[in-house]
Amino acid sequence: MPTTPSVYSTVATSTSTSTSTTTASASLPTGSSSAGLAKVAVAAGKKYFGSATDNPELTDTAYVAGLSNISDFLQLTPGNSMKWDATEPTQGTFTFSGGDAIVALAQKNGQLVRGHNCVWYNQLPSWVTAGNFNNATLTSIVANHCGTLVGHYKGEIWDVINEPFNDDGTWRSDVFYNTMGTSYVAVALQAARAADPAAKLYINDYNIEGTGAKSTAMVNLVKSLKAAGVPIDGIGIQGHLIVGEVPSTIQANIEQFVALGVEVAITELDIRMTLPETSALLLQQKQDYQTVIAACKAVTGCIGVTIWDYTDKVSQALMNIDEH
To answer: Cβ neighbours of residue 301 under 8 Å, at least 6 residues apart?
Structure first.
């Protein structure tokens, strides 16, 4: 997501005592913040409530204890350690240590992992962006990267394609699109499916929370992939939002995505505000989280929500080094 000067507060766990964050569980059936976010989500028919994380945070024992509380979090997303620059920094040489550490933590806790991501225009090593590869060579590179990455982390959910569109619904100009055209999407998805037939394969993007040109582009892409027999299991709605600006069409948009025959997840939810915080801003933030959670809850095919880390202490760090 584009860089913004705004500072924000993210949704907190049900056990947080922070006054600068609010809990999303208020809109779910129990009406109690003590039940545990993941427990309440599962009771509402969802697969999980989860959080992003990143390797530098794993040295903070108090933070890890909160992250490992499966009453609150049944799913983890590595913020950066599975991206191309981290996993294939030089051509054909793969490094998995960062991702492995987060997967090991999740497996110890009995949590799902969302792989993030195979193909994205950002955080690419220079050998990819400046390699001047032709179509055939880059096709082979994309297939090898996605197949190796997904094959190493079998059995996970994967953001195979991340942020393919501009906000007006046109294709983003990057090394993949400029060299391969739209075929890079199918190449990556097919390689991922071949590497792990059990993985759930997603296309993930921001500013597709409500209806509009970008969401329509996503609908048309999924339709075309399905028509061509290309594997696609889900659409990831990132959910990087601003207090007071949650689209009124969010539930309708989730419904139109699910109607395509795919599942939907809210993958990177945060609702930021410009500081200093006020009681009015905090109330609006709480209501906005409730709106998003309620929209997912109302649609059977929306399988879960992941917040872009569960505490403001590290969510801003993720924002600085991730895609936002």
So the answer is: 254, 257, 258, 262, 263, 264
